[in-house]
Amino acid sequence: MKRLAIGAVAAASLVLSPAAALAAPETDTTTEKAPVATEEASPAAEGEQVDADKKADTEGEKEADKDAAEMQEAGVVTLDLYNLTDIHGHIEKVTSKDKKTQVVTVKEAGLAAMSCYVKKAKEDNPNSQLVLLGDNIGASPFTSGSQDDNPTIKALNEMGVFASTIGNHEFDKGQDVLRARIAGTKVGDVTYEKVNFPYLGANLKGMEEIGAYEVWTSPSGVKVAFIGALEDDAPTKVFEGTFNGITFEKPVKVINDLAKKIKDNKEADVVIAMYDNDVKRSYPKMGEYVDGIMGGDTHVPYYFTKEKTEEGREISATASGKFTDNLANLQIKVDLKTRKVVDSQAIKITAEDVVKACPEGDPAVVKVVDEAKKISDEKGAEVIADGVGNFYRGKLPNDGENRGTESTIGGLIADAMRSTFTTLDGKPLDIGIINAGGIRNDLLPEGGKVTIKNVFDVQPFSNEVGYVSMTGAQFKTLLEQQWKELDAAKGSTRPMLKLGLSQNVKYTFDPAKEKGQRITSVLINDEPIVDDQTYTVGSVTFLLQGNDSFDVLKDVKDTLTTIPDGLDRDFFGKYLTENPKVQPRDAVQSVGVTLVDPKVDGMKVTTKVNLRGLSFSGPGESQTKTVTVKLGDQTATATVNNTLEDKNAADYSAIVTADGVGYLDQPVELSATATCGDSAKAHLPLTVTDDKGNVLVGEAAGLGVDVTCEGKTDPTDPVDPTPAVPTLDINRDKVAQGDSVTFTAKGLAPEEAALITVHSETVVVFAGKADAKGMIEAKWTVPSDFEVGEHLARLTTDNAKASVKFNVVGAKVPNKPADPLDPNKILADKIFKGLLEDLAAQKDDANKVTTGTTTGKPAPKLAHTGTEAMSLMAAALLFGAAGTTLIAVRRKGAK
């Protein structure tokens, strides 16, 4: 590390900061002017950045010294405001080795090196401070997570953190545990390490332990106010009820209003927003009293120097990235006379350069980390499976996490969610799902050996598991809700959260369609999903409660059943134990298909087909190199672009964070001719096969183009627009007393309500609905004392009538009297007396209505209660509810 040769502390506070020497700034660029692509962030992800691996040459150092001298003479102080975000308990150094070159790269510096770097920087420039942007703990690796994140808090306390924004992950174990961390007290059997720095959340109301802002007075006398704020979508990222009693105000308004108040009251000269949100979307909204902004949450590194806000002001902004992959410095220069900010810069210091500057690390933090590692190594060394392949989360160009693309680890966990537990009555689940945010690490078992630590690192949240019941239509809606609105008020700050799905689920989507209409097919076990069929879906209860803005799951939350005796990682570990040789999938389960401007000329169809989401994104994972697209009997082959940057991605940047990885640069053109059979329509199916022979889109998906055949009539279409006339037939025209006949009604509408009655004695033979073909078959046994002679059977609907005559002859076999306690008869007597009276009243001979008992007593005269207003549909439903298929209504004592 280069040290500044300034003797006096006072002088040191007025000159170029150590970050200038350590990070060697060379240019002042922005995204729009000259983006700099690095391993840590793509051009779309970064504004002005200064990489610590680009050391200034001698001339550059001389220029820096010259600038420092000029600043000193001008009375300008440099404030180096270092910040880290989304540490998530990553306290250890992480490296990777290139298999070909054997070059070792530092991916995460670890907190010991970070602490050493910042402490040395403070020595070089006492006008330096360190703050955090939240999510310091939670979803942590095994080393810290298995010890309740106490090691992380211990390490941060040693680092001398001034303040931290509160993140949603600080609430992972609930408010009681967070309060215990702040106080250093005990909950249950766990004693929590006391947090020695304040948590800030100005827009959170209802938890007094969380402050709004802190003011730091630098050695130069310049006062800096740090305002903390948390995005108001936080309740969608944690278990329901976690924020009970806490309300969220709009963070941007709170920050801007509070900044004005602080400056109006002369509490601080400089105001910095510590806003745990996507800083790329936040910095333009900062008002005139905010001098700089730090962000987080997205795990993407952002470095913007003097960008324009919506008001046209210049502002610099940083988001370090995630874990300890970078250290950010929001450098602010202040005129000591006017106490105004005269310059600012966003400086990125990579993990590689932090470790180069401090290879041994801060001894105090090294001790904390070493102790934690010793304990966790003993706990996590047990091997539970041997022979497991490598499974990755979705990747960004900088090797960061991508929650918008299909991943092999997501599919693996979803398979575990489907197959390792059943419903409480022992039935297998239909579908397994998992949210991308619930997967916190890749599964990369050394030598194929999976340990308890590996499983914990993948699923560290200690979620319960369970299942819900939902219809096929609701499951389609669930898939539609993977695409998010970039609006915290509507529950998401990411453009897509791709669900991991069990291997028996496939679907296609059209990214060109409007949000909410993109799912074009869903297959369960290679069969189209049925909209009104119920499916059982297993996952972690966090997701099944509708969190991560999967709102349709809230509609079925009443069906949520929690599985006892196990957490998510227990069932995941069980799956790996039962499948110790499991390997990543060879093909994706979801594919984007867009038919571009299909044209039909007679029987000939010409169209262009665009495809995306064809590959996985992890190192060495299956990638589709070419696809064969088939329309009807015509095929075309196209090359797949598997780069992770795509100008056509459904996102605000050039990084594929939605719609999946692997796409066609240009649509393929296909021309096919349809052949008509007996149908009025011909379907040209569209299929897609990859270069390994995997069918990515099969005919079962139902995609393709329909062609109308001239001169043909679709059997499902009515040939005659005139409605069919209902008919009523009887299987024989002569029947003996005590014998049975069958009445057949045809020509009704499907499920149309109808009555079949027999006269001159009024008997209800059938009351109900026709079947799906518009038919009714009703069997009727002629009572043994039924009047001999000619009778009329009548079919009545709300819209039509039909009848048939038949003759009753002498008794064949005496009929057994009906049980006077028959519940069907009793129910009919109570419900339908008015209806039957009306039916009888319609007869010309004004016969009286009597019930089908054998007492021989006349039925009592009933009051006319307006039953003529009762529709046949209502009557049919009532009869159906009673389970009645035959009710005899007879005139008593008429002979």
How would you characterize the overall build of this protein?
The chain has 895 residues and is of the alpha+beta class. The protein has four domains: 9-370, 4-Layer Sandwich (Purple Acid Phosphatase, chain A, domain 2); 386-578, 5'-Nucleotidase, C-terminal domain (5'-nucleotidase,  domain 2), CATH 3.90.780.10; 590-708, Immunoglobulin-like (Sandwich); 727-882, Macroglobulin (MG2) domain (Immunoglobulin-like, Sandwich), CATH 2.60.40.1930. It contains 19 helices and 45 strands. The strands form eleven sheets. Strands 24, 25, 26, 29, 30, 33 and 34 form a seven-stranded mixed β-sheet that branches. The chain has a six-stranded mixed β-sheet with strand order 8-5-4-1-17-18. A six-stranded mixed β-sheet has the order 10-11-13-14-16-15. Helix 6 runs antiparallel to helix 11 and helix 13 packs across helix 17. The radius of gyration is 37 Å and the shape is elongated. Keywords: Cell wall, Membrane, Peptidoglycan-anchor, Secreted, Signal, Transmembrane, Transmembrane helix. This is Bifunctional metallophosphatase/5'-nucleotidase. InterPro entries: 5'-Nucleotdase_C, 5'-Nucleotdase_C_sf, 5_nucleotidase/apyrase, LPXTG_anchor, Metallo-depent_PP-like. It comes from Trueperella pecoris.
Please tally the β strands and state the result: 45
CATH architecture of the largest domain: 4-Layer Sandwich
Structure classification: alpha+beta
CATH superfamily name of the largest domain?
Metallo-dependent phosphatases
As a percent range, the share of helical residues equals 10-25%
Task: Output the CATH topology of the largest domain.
Answer: Purple Acid Phosphatase, chain A, domain 2
First and last CA, distance: 120 Å
Helical region count?
A: 19
GO biological process, one term: nucleotide catabolic process
Domain Gram-positive cocci surface proteins LPxTG: 862-895
Keywords: Cell wall, Membrane, Peptidoglycan-anchor, Secreted, Signal, Transmembrane, Transmembrane helix
Signal peptide: 1-23
